[in-house]
Protein 1
Amino acid sequence: MIALSAFRLAAYVRSHRVHQALLALLAALAVVYATRAPAGHEAAVLADSAVLIVPLLAWAARSLLDTEPDRQREMSAALAGGRGRELAAGLLAALTACAAFAALALVWGVLLGMSATPPGPVLAAGIVLHALSALAGLTLGALTSRALLPSPALSIMALVSGFVAMLLISASPLHWLTVPLTVWMRAASAERLVAQLPELAAVSLVWCLLGLAAYAWLRRTRP
Amino acid sequence: MVKTTMRLTDVSFRYRRRDPSVIREADAELSPGDVVELTGANGAGKSTLLRLLAGLLRPTGGAITGRPAAVGLAPDRFPGEQPFTVSGYLDHMARVCGGRWRPWAERLNMGQLLGVRLRELSKGSAHKVGLAQALMAEPGLLLLDEPFAGLDSGTRDELPPIVAELSARGAIVVAADHQGGLRDLPSLRHWTITDGRLVETTPARTPVLAGKLAGTTPQGPAEDAVGGIAGEPAVTPDTTATTVGSPAGEAGGRAVGGSADVGVGVDGGGVAVEVTVPAGDLGAFLERMRGEGYRARPVSGEESR
C-alpha cells in the first residue's frame, strides 16, 4: 500500500498538478499574512489560517486522486491485491499532500504572520486545527473526486458548495451538523479556543470520518 | 503460487439499479491451468466479466469464490497519459506487487522502449507495457482484454507460449480476444457472452489432439488446434515423453502446454495419449494431469512410439 501511495504522489508531483494547489495556497498565505498580527491575536490568526486552507486542501486531494487514469486505478487495484488497498493507498497519498500543505501554512503563519511567538497551548491548538483542516480537506476532496463525480464541472461546483455549506451551517445554531469551521474562528477570537478544543476536535473528527466512510461506501460500486 | 479453483455461482451484474443485467446468472468453474478465450459482440459484457473476475466489480447477484490472491489485469487500451517513462512506471508497479518486470520486458521485445515516456508510446508499444505489468506479479489469475491488439508479429508469436507457460504453472488465464490468437493452445476453453448469458462453447474436457493421431479424429473446435500445432511442431531436443491415461468415463486426455507433440491410442475403455513436452515442463505437466484425475507417468524411449 505504501508503494502504491508513493506511486500516486510521484504522479501528482511529476504531472505538475501539485503546482495548482501549491501556487494558490502561497498566494492566499501571502495575502493573509501581508501584515503581522499584533500580539494576543495568535489564536485567531491560526484559526483563520486553518479555515482558509480547507478548500485549497480539498482541491489538492481531489487533484491527486484524479491524477491516476481510471484504467490505471483498476490495474493498480489488481496489482495491489484489491480495491480496498487501492482506496486506502489513494487516501494515504492525498492525506500526505494535505498534511504537507497544512504544515506549510502553519509554519508560514508562525514565522511570518505574527508579531510574537504564540504561547505553547495556543500553538498546540493551532497544530490540531491545521491537522483537522487537512482531514477536512481530504474528505471534501475525496467526495468530489472523479471516481464519484465524473463531470469536472459538477465536481468543482460540489467542492466549492461543500465548503460554503460547511461555513454556513457552522455559523448557525446547527453547527454540530458539520465540521464547525466558523465555530473554530469564533472560539479563537473570543480566546476560548484552547478550552473548547476537545469538543470542537471531536465533532470535526466525527464528521471527517463519516465523510471518509461515505467515500469508501460509494466507491464499492465505482472502482 | 497457490492453486485454487475459482467458481462463478449465479453471477449477475448491472451497472445501475434499473438497468438491464449485463451478465445474467453466469455459472462457471475455472481450474488451475485453465485458459479461456472469451468472445462476444461489442458491448456484450466481456470487459465487465473480466472486471468481475478481477474483483474490481462486485456482482449484483451470485458470488465469485476462490479467486487467486495475485491477479494480473491487462486492459485493451493501456492508459498512456501518465508522467513516467516505461522503466520508471514498471519500477513503481514492481514495488506495488513485489514482482520483476525485466524478464517480461525482454520477452515482449521492449528493450528499446524502456527510456521512452508513456505518453509518447504507440498503441502497440503501450499495450506491451500493459502486458508486462500484468505478468510481473506471477499472477494466479491473468485477465487479458484484447491481448493481441496492435502487437507486432514477433510479440504476437511470443504471447501464446507465455500464456501456455503460466497455464502449466497453474495460473488461470481468461482472454477476451476477437483475433483468436490463443487458438493454437491445446487446452483452450471457449466462452461466449450472448444477451448477457455466459456459454461455454467448447466443453472443458474435449480432447484436443495434435500431431500423430492413431485411431481417432478430433471433432468440432479441436480441429482448429490441430491445424495450428501440426503446422508448427515445436518438439525440442530436450523433450521427455509422458503418457496420460484418461479417467474412467471420459473419452480421452487433454493435452496442455505450449509445445506438445501428441499421439493417441485406444486401450480398452479408455484412451492412452502420448505427449512430448519440454523436459523442464515435465514436472508441472504431470502434476497438472494427475491433479485433474488422469493417470499420467513418464515413459522411456523404448516404450515411446
Note: DSSP finds ten helices and no strands in chain A.
Protein 2
Amino acid sequence: MRAAFEGSQAIARAVARCRPQVVAAYPITPQTHIVEGIAKLVADGEADCEVVSVESEFAAASVVLGAAVAGSRAYTATASQGVLLMAEVLYNIAGMRVPLVLTCANRAVSAPINIWNDHQDAMAVRDAGWIQLFCTDNQEAVDTTIQAFRITQETELPVMVCVDGFILTHLFEPVDLPSQEQIDMFLPPYRFSRTLDPRRPLTLGTLVGPEHYTEVRAQLHGDLEAAAEAILKADADWADLVGRRAGGLIKSDGPHTARIGVLTLGSVYGTLQEAARELVPDTPLRLMALRCFRPFPAEALRAAVDGLTDLVVLERAIGPGMGGILATEVRAALAGLRDAPRVHGAVAGLGGRDIPLDILPRLLALADAAEPVRCSVIDLQKMPPARLGADR
Amino acid sequence: MSKTTVLDLRELRRRQPRFTGMDPGHRACQGCGQSLAAHIVTEAAGPDVIVANATGCLEVFSTPWPQTAWRVPWIHSLFENAAALAAGIETALKQQGRPTKMLAFAGDGGTFDIGFQTLSGMIERGHNVLYVCFDNEAYMNTGVQRSSSTPHAAATTTSPAGRMRPGKRHLKKDLLAIIAAHHLPYAATATVAYPGDIKAKVRRAMAIEGPTFLMIHAPCPLGWVHAPELTIKVARAGVETGLTPIVELERGKLVSVLPIREKRPVTDYLRLQGRFRHLLGDDPVAVQEREHLQALADHNIETYGLLAREGDVRDSVTAALVRRGGAIR
C-alpha cells in the first residue's frame, strides 16, 4: 500500500507487521514517535505484542535481550544518549550473539546537548559487534527494517537500522508499506537456537578466561564479516518479492566514466543526487551511499570506486583527534589497492546543521586540491549564496 | 519370592530423588554463604524456573566456561541489569503463555547500588519475578570493597580501619524499607543460618503472581574475615543480636518476624569477624562505635518486634513457621 506516512509511523507499521512479541523502549527525541506508533498499534489491536515501558534505555536493551533469549522476537529503538546509555548492553547482546533489531534515529551526542541529526551515536558503538545499516530514505527504512528481522535471525547477530533523526523520522513522504502477506512470506517465525527452556537447561553468558576469549572474539569478527552475504541475500530476496532493493552493501549512482566520486551515509545521498542534477549536470560524478557500515564491505567498496581518481567522503560525525571516522575507514579499506583514488574527508551537518545542495560544489573543490584533504569541516554558514536560492 | 531389603533411614533419604538446581564442584570459597543460599533457593524453587544472574561471585564461581554448575536455564548478562533481564524474559514467557517462573539473582552490589534502578523499575512494572539478593555486605568479587550494604564501622578495602577512621563511616542502607515502599506483594529477609526458613519463603514467593523480593544474609569468610566453618554461627549471631532482622512483608506491611530467643550483645557478633576487630578494644572510638552498633540492633528489635514472647517457637528449622502478625502497634 503506497501512502504518505511520517517516517516514524511507516517504521512503526513495518515493525508491527514483522510480528514482534516484545517491544521495550524509553522515549528519546527523535526516536519517540516510533515506539509511540507501535504502542498505539498494540492498543488498537493491530499488533499482538507486549510493550514494556521501561525506566531507561539501559533497561530497554536489557529487556529485549531477555525476551530474545526466551524465544520471542524483540525490538527496540533509541537515539543519541540512549545509544550511549545502552552501550554496555549492546556489546553484551552482540557478544552473546542474540538476534535483535534496533532502530537508531540518528542524533548528535552531548555536550553540547543537541537533539538534531548527525551520526555520532551510531559511530560510538561501531565496534560493539552489531550489523549497522544506514537508510537513505523512508522506503529504505521500511524495507531495511523488515530485512533486519530476517538478517538477525539467520546470523544471530543484532542489527541496528540507522535512520536520520528528524530528516527521515519526521518527514512525510510516500512509502509503499508492504502487506502482512508479503512480510509473512519473507520473514519466517522467530527461532533462536539457544532459547532458555527448563526442559533443556542451558547456561548463557558464562565467564570466559584468557584461554578461550580470543577465539570467541575472533569468531564474532569473522561471523560479522560473513554476515554481508546474509545482508545481500535478504535484499535480493526482498527485491524478488516486492520489486525493489534497499541498497545492498553500497548503493551507487553515476556514469562509469566518472573520475570523481562522493561517498556518504544516510539521507544526504538524496541531497547529493539532486545537487548533481541541478548544479553540475555536465560533470560526470559517481555518488555512493554506504548502506552497510558494519560489517564494513571493503571488497564491495574497492569495486565501487573502480576508475575514480578522487573520492570525497562526506560524513555527519567526527572522531575528535582523528577526523572523519568513515573517511579513516575508507582509506584503510582502499590501502594497497592499485590505482586507488585519493580520499578526501569532509565533515558536515553536525547537530542538525542543514546540508543544502550547495555543498556539492564545495565537495568537488576538495578533489582539486594538490594534496588529499584529510579532514575538512565544512562550515555551511559561510557558504556563498546558493545558486538556487538560500532557502534550499 | 523376592528378597526384602531393609534400608535404614539415611539410606532411604539418600535414594530419594531430590531436585538440585545448582551442582556442587563449583569454585566458591570454603564456607561461602552465597553458594549455600543459592543452592537452597534453587532447590526450593524447583526445576521449572529460569535464572537471570548479575555479575558477581556467584556468576564467576559457577560458570567458568566450559563448565557450569547450573541444572536450570541460567543467563548472565551484566552487573546492573539482572532485574531488567529477568523482566524481559518474564515478558516473553507471559507473551508465549509459558508458566515458567523467573528468578533474578544478584549480590548486594548488584542490588543496593549499581542495579538498584532496574530493580525498582522491575518491581514498579509488576513483573512476575522472584528477585533474590545474596547480601554479603560488600563487593566481594572485586576484593572486599564497601557497598551501601556494608554495616557501619565495618572494615573493607575501601573503608579500611585506621588511626583516623573506624571503618565504614556510613550506615547500612535500609533497602528493605525502600523495597517495601513499592508496595509489592511480598518481600522478606532470610539468612543461611535458617535454611528451612529460606525454603519456606522461596515457596511462598513462587506461589505469588507478581514481583517478590528475598534478601538472604550470606556471610563471606574471606570478606568478613572469619574461619570458613563459622559461616552459620556468624549468620546466627547476626539474627540473635538483632543486627539481622528476619522479617516478612506483604504489600509493604510487616506480617511476621523470626523471634530472637535470647537477645545477645552485638559484641557476640562483632568478635567473630575480623572486619570488626578494630572495634573490640578500649579506645574511646571503638567503645563509641560498639555503642552505636548496639543502638542500631536495639532499634531493629524495637522496630520489628523481634524479641520472643511466651509461646513463640524456638529458633530452629521449624522457626520457619514464624509468628504471624509482626510488631504490635
Note: The first strand of chain B starts at residue 49 and ends at 53.
